[in-house]
TrEMBL record, chain A:
Record protein name field: Amino acid/amide ABC transporter membrane protein 1, HAAT family
InterPro entries: ABC_transp_permease (IPR001851), BCAA_transport_permease (IPR052157)
Chief site of localization: membrane
Organism from which the protein derives: Paracoccus thiocyanatus
CDD domains linked to this entry: TM_PBP1_LivH_like
From TrEMBL, chain B:
Keyword Cell membrane among UniProt keywords: yes
Membrane topology summary: Multi-pass membrane protein
Compartment annotation: Cell membrane
Main location as per UniProt: membrane
GO CC annotation terms, alphabetical: plasma membrane
Keyword list, A-Z: Cell membrane, Membrane, Transmembrane, Transmembrane helix
Transmembrane feature ranges: 39-58, 65-83, 103-121, 128-146, 174-201, 221-242, 262-287, 299-321
GO MF annotations, alphabetized: branched-chain amino acid transmembrane transporter activity
Name of the protein in question: Amino acid/amide ABC transporter membrane protein 2, HAAT family
Length: 305, 328
């Protein structure tokens, strides 16, 4: 019973990570850009949702605002800064996006203050539901799992079945060629970047309802999303999905089960501390194992193109 | 070494740092001496990273790991020495220490070992992967430090007495500054010698054209790993000095902001230039101090400045001073 609940928690966590990692891996894959400021867009979405929900009283409007605000912030940043970085080396990209984090974080602190904001769920989404087997589970976490699955399907459809998806895949393969064929690359890149930003902002708004909305909330998630992308392989949406679920499950189940497993060998107190410490590094061990077996990631075409 | 413009700028930067500290000491301004010491320590960390980043082209976003390990080794040894308990009894007894000359090699050894493991795994990848993997491993240590309560966990670890150095009073700010600056100078000479050696030339060749280096019969992996380990050891030493400066270590030394800052020192000054990180670190401390007085949100201003440097002055401070980019 506990195991089923933790597995659902892991699934929900994995779905959140997928929303973050999908945008990162798209931007890596299509533009070859490492974007540290992706976590800031996640934060921007959460703050937009909190502000709009507080002003209008409607969580759904807030959720819509998170998508719009993060996409707009993404497009703005892409046009103002990011597009100058495509031709630069990764070092310049890391540094410029690190600088963007500083600007975003301090700007948000200036606008909203240092105190965390809280989002309240609408009554229709709060409360628990009875699952088959007699398990009570928070409805909203199920909704997040549903959202994540819907986004995964939607992205797959977008990439595999639409004209925009064809252009994105073509842009990954050969950017000069699709430029010569008459595709406006600059606009395509802005769209891809804004799409990734919107997904990150959406994830931020959803997580903001479970945790609090505060400055710096995006950074731990960003690093986990990096781990997901490394495990899944750069540029692969499928890899991001599998990687996110792996990381989400490993982290949640590790934290839930390790202390219990270790307590069979040691006394409870030391099993708890060692278990907690081990659980916190478990996903990085997972990453190391993947790196040793497949340096290009589970679904990657080739390491670091 | 001929006295070209780079050399003049390098010497001028060091002279300026020393002159600032001595001037402040004469005026009785201990706070400024401590700021200069901080600049020297951060400069040392930058010099370490520069070996991997500037000369080796290895964009490590995880050097806080080595900085923090150096710091934690110092803190752990010092706290055990104060409590009179051994650090470990198995497989052999390790006692605590409050002698800098004993602590530094331990800090560098621990950081070097960590760099060996992290480097061996990370160097299997390159490009964007390398950045993310080094970042992730540093973050792993960060979370480990937070969740491991033995040495303070999230709260960090204080030790109340600065470790000692034979013949010097390490509590006097100017004497501690002298220790840190001497180590910085040693690291600079070491970097200058290493980058001119066969090893250093091979390292730079591997950065410029990996395939051609392979064709010449040099295996980049071993060379890069060596550079990564040396780089980690220097940064570990800087971490040890930083712990002693504050008499405090905390997981913040391992956080990715620290990695970013060390990287910023290198970039502000100019990538792959000998004294670039020193100039960058000094400028960073100065900005922190000046902008921090202007606004509580000084990090936003720093971010904008950094953005401007990346977009419009890719050679960094020394690039501006010497009027030309480092020939890549």
């Amino acid at each position: 019973m506990l195991l089923a609940e933790q597995a659902l928690n892991g699934l929900q966590y994995g779905m959140m990570l997928f929303l973050m990692a999908a945008g990162l891996t798209l931007v890596f894959g299509v533009m070859g850009l490492i974007n540290l400021a992706h976590g800031s867009l996640y934060m921007a979405g959460a703050f937009a949702c909190a502000a709009v929900a507080a002003a209008t009283g409607s969580f759904w409007l807030g959720l819509a605002a998170s998508l719009v605000a993060a996409a707009a912030a993404g497009a703005l940043v892409e046009i103002a800064v990011i597009r100058r970085l495509y031709a630069r080396d990764h070092l310049d990209q890391v540094l410029a996006t690190f600088a963007l984090i500083l600007v975003f974080s301090e700007g948000t602190r200036w606008l909203f203050g240092s105190f965390p904001l809280y989002l309240t769920l609408p009554p229709s989404l709060s409360g628990a539901v009875m699952l088959p087997g007699g398990l009570h589970y928070p409805l909203f976490r199920l909704v997040i799992i549903g959202f994540g699955a819907a986004v995964a399907l939607g992205l797959w459809w977008l990439i595999a079945r639409t004209r925009l998806g064809i252009r994105i895949r073509a842009g990954e393969a050969d950017r000069e060629m699709i430029g010569a064929l008459g595709v406006d690359i600059a606009r395509l890149y802005t769209i891809v970047f804004a799409l990734g930003a919107a997904l990150a902002g959406f994830a931020g708004a959803l997580v903001g309802t479970i945790q609090s909305v505060q400055v710096g909330m995006g950074e731990p998630v960003l690093i986990l999303a990096f781990v997901v992308v490394v495990i899944g392989g750069i540029g692969s949406i499928k890899g991001a999905f599998v990687g996110a679920l792996l990381v989400g499950m490993t982290d949640t189940l590790g934290k839930a089960l390790l202390p219990g497993l270790l307590s069979r060998m040691w006394d409870a107190a030391s099993a708890n501390t060692v278990g907690a410490s081990l659980a916190s590094v478990l996903i990085y061990v997972l990453m190391a194992v993947v790196l040793i077996l497949r340096p290009q990631g589970l679904f990657g075409a080739g390491a670091g193109r | 070494m001929t006295l070209n413009r780079d050399t003049v700028v390098n010497l001028a930067i060091l002279a300026l740092l020393v002159a600032t500290a001595i001037g402040a000491h004469v005026l009785g301004n201990g706070f400024t001496v401590t700021l200069a010491t901080k600049a020297a320590i951060f400069g040392l960390a930058g010099v370490g990273l520069n070996l991997a980043l500037g000369y080796g082209g290895l964009i490590s976003f995880g050097h806080a790991a080595f900085f923090g390990i150096g710091g934690y080794v110092t803190g752990i040894l010092a706290s055990h020495a104060a409590a009179g308990t051994p650090v470990a009894t198995l497989p052999f007894t390790v006692m605590g220490s409050n002698e800098m000359l004993g602590i530094w090699p331990m800090a560098m050894l621990a950081a070097g070992l960590a760099a060996l493991v992290i480097g061996a795994l990370s160097l299997r990848t390159w490009g964007v992967y390398f950045i993310m993997v080094t970042l992730a491993f540093a973050q792993m240590l960060y979370y480990f430090a937070i969740s491991w309560p033995r040495y303070g966990g999230e709260d960090g670890l204080s030790f109340y007495v600065r470790n000692s150095f034979p013949g010097l009073n390490t509590f006097a700010p100017i004497q501690y500054f002298a220790i840190c600056t001497t180590l910085l100078a040693v690291a600079l000479v070491f970097t200058a010698v290493v980058t001119q050696s066969r090893f250093g030339l091979a390292l730079q060749a591997a950065r410029q054209n990996s395939q051609r280096t392979v064709a010449l019969g040099i295996r980049p992996y071993a060379i890069r790993l060596t550079a990564f380990v040396l780089s980690g050891m220097i940064v570990g030493l800087a971490g040890s000095l930083y712990a002693d400066l504050n008499r405090f270590v905390s997981p913040a030394m391992l956080s990715w902001h620290m990695s970013g800052e060390i990287m910023v020192f290198v970039i502000l000054g100019g990538v792959g230039r000998l004294c670039g990180p020193v100039a960058g670190a000094a400028l960073f401390i100065l900005l922190e101090h000046v902008l921090g007085g202007v606004s509580d949100y000084w990090q936003a201003l720093l971010g904008l400045l950094l953005l401007a440097i990346v977009l419009f002055a890719p050679g960094g401070l020394i690039g501006i001073l010497t009027q030309r980019r480092r020939h890549a």
